[in-house]
Specification:
The chain is α/β, with parallel strands linked by helices. Helices cover about 45% and strands about 15% of the residues. The protein has helices at about 25-35, 45-50, 60-65, 65-70, 75-90, 115-130, 150-155, 180-190, 205-215, 240-250, 260-265, 275-280, 300-310, 315-325, 330-355; strands spanning about 10-15, 95-100, 135-145, 165-170, 195-200, 220, 230-235, 235-240, 255, 285.
Length: about 350
């Protein structure tokens, strides 16, 4: 590892899926309570291995395993528990600010309304906030391959100022462009929600161009394939295409998840992942977990991976963490206080001790 251990330092995450971060034991218990018998295994170690998506062939294959977690989250108590435990686990790992996202429409098969699903998630997050001090924001996600995004945006809008801070599009990119959901995106923006769209994960820079150009996204979920619009020589970016230049020069935040990207085939190994090149070339990158269960990661493990793979020092991680908080959709006074009173002093002390 290069330049000091970041695992004990305060962290921030912008891209973490609620239904991708269940504890294995919770998945087993919720399945039993719901009478769900299709889990690939029922012993914790075996189930963890089965849920780990390292080596899948595509994003579509990676997403298929979510059928199990979604199946056990069809009641308000289950959603509340998963949200509570997600925040508790992040806080225990050193996260001081977390934006957690989920698609409420996926959790209505048992008759639960979208608004009830959102309220349940907020209840769990608030309870964890009260116990840990973790500052949170909830991002409500609609799916690209569904036709209810306007209803999802309306449901999210009911909780503006009460914990919901953003609107997202997720799901399969290929064949489902973000512009199909312009009405929902505009509605969410009119209600004051931040807009973050999954783009540039399975599709190239054109998806990112649509997200920021036609959809006016504030942030890009993943966005890692912006590297396809860059010229690279000897491991460094030497020239930018039109889309890449816009992303870099406008400081568009890219919510990058290294392990998840590796599992969906973005790069063959961590050292080949473009995050390091993008950071050195001036792109506004954050480091995120995406799906802690499916990728078997935490924020501290992702930071350690970034340090080892890209030679990032604590000074680099201080910059990235600060930019992550600056890019958040939650209350600015809270985020700025974390920058000035928590992250800044902690990293300054660690960097001083590492010299």
């Amino acid at each position: 590892m290069t330049g000091g251990d970041a695992s004990a330092l305060p962290q921030a995450v912008l891209h973490d899926h609620l239904d991708g971060g269940l504890r294995v034991e919770t998945l087993i218990e919720l399945a039993a309570a719901a009478g769900y018998t299709n889990l690939p295994a029922t012993e914790p170690t075996d189930l963890a291995a089965a849920m780990h998506q390292d080596g899948v062939e595509s994003l579509a294959d990676y997403l298929a395993i979510f059928s199990h977690t979604v199946a056990v989250m069809q009641t308000a108590p289950a959603i509340e528990r998963v949200a509570y435990e997600a925040a508790i686990d992040h806080a225990a790992d050193g996260v001081v600010y977390a934006e957690i996202r989920f698609g409420p429409s996926l959790l209505t098969e048992g008759g639960l309304h979208r608004e009830a699903a959102i309220e349940a998630a907020l209840t769990g997050l608030r309870r964890a906030e009260g116990e840990t001090g973790l500052a949170f924001g909830l991002i409500v996600t609609a799916l690209r391959d569904q036709d209810d995004s306007d209803q999802v945006a309306l449901a999210a809008a009911r909780f503006v100022g009460d914990g919901v801070v953003g609107f997202d599009l997720a799901g399969p990119e290929i064949g489902y462009p973000a512009e199909n959901h312009l009405a929902a995106i505009r509605l969410a923006r009119e209600w004051g929600l931040g807009i973050t769209l999954h783009a540039g994960e399975a599709v190239g820079p054109e998806a990112i161009a649509t997200a920021i150009g036609k959809c006016a996204a504030d942030r890009i979920g993943h966005g890692v394939r912006i590297i396809d619009d860059c010229s690279v020589q000897d491991g460094e970016i030497v020239d930018l295409g039109r889309v890449a230049a816009r992303v870099r020069d406008h400081g568009v935040p890219l919510e990058i998840s290294i392990s998840s990207n590796l599992h969906t085939g973005v790069a063959p190994d961590a050292k080949s992942h473009p995050l390091g090149m993008l950071y050195r070339a001036g792109f506004n990158v954050s480091i995120n977990t995406d799906n802690r269960l499916m990728s078997a990661v935490s924020m501290s493990s992702e930071l350690a991976l970034a340090q080892e793979a890209f030679g990032l020092r604590l000074t680099d991680l201080a910059v990235i963490t600060t930019r992550t908080l600056e890019a958040g959709f939650g209350d600015w006074a809270v985020r700025n206080s974390l920058i000035q009173e928590v992250v800044g002093p902690a990293y300054a002390a660690a960097i001083s001790g590492d010299l």
